[in-house]
Amino acid sequence: MGKFIEDFKAFALKGNVIDMAVGVIVGGAFGKIVSSLVNDILMPVITACTGGAGYANMKYVIKEGVPATAEGVAAVEEVAINYGMFIQNIVDFFIIALSIFVALRYTMKFMKKEEKAEEAAPAPEPTPEEKLLTEIRDLLKEDIKK
Fold this sequence. Notes:
Blueprint: H1 2-12, H2 15-49, E1 60-63, E2 79-81, H3 83-120, H4 128-145
Antiparallel strand pairs: 1-2
Helix pairs in contact: 2-3
């Protein structure tokens, strides 16, 4: 049991697992923001453009629902193909995908700038000790070859 706990601790405390957990949490929050953008800002505009019907209410009714009656007849639920919700989910997906694409694009652009800045920085001049050690190394290589 002790080996299992040690292995789990080594796994859980690795940087990649923690980074992944942070990514999942941030991704969930980002998903809520994008869903709010779609549901609270974009869809009302689309609903107004479609004449007030809205995507969520668009459906093809296969069988009408029947309410319960006083005589004890049970209610029958409506059977419908809710293609409006499908369209809304597609719009939601494309907006989420676009948002992630834009965020990743700017992140990668920022990372490339940092890499270029690191590459552009000149290497520091070697210290006198480093120069001497380099000369000694080169002399030893020459002696080994002879």
